[in-house]
Amino acid sequence: MYADENVIKIKHAVLYEVAKLAFAGKLEEERDHIALKLIPGPVARFRCCIYKEREIIRQRVRLAEGKAPGAEDDGNVVQVISSACEDCPISSYTVTENCQNCLGKACINACKFGAIEAGRTRSHIDPSKCKECGRCAQACPYNAIAHLKRPCKSACPVDAITYNEYGISVIDKDKCIRCGKCIHSCPFGAIGSRTAIVQVIEALKSGRRVYAMAAPATEGQFGADITMASWKNAMKELGFEDFYDVGLGGDMTAAYEAKEWAEAYRDGKKKVTSCCPAFVNMVRMHYPELAECVSTTVSPMCAVSRLIKARDPEAVTVFIGPCIAKKSEVADQKIEGNADYVLTYSEIRAMMKAKEITLKPAENTDQIASVFGKRFANAGGVTAAVLQSLKESNDEIAATVCKANGAAECKKALLLLKVARLPEDFIEGMVCDGGCVGGPSAYKDQMVSKKNRDTLIGQADGRGVWENLSNYEMDSFSMHRE
Question: Peptide bond before 42: cis, by omega within 30 degrees of 0?
Answer without folding.
Answer: yes
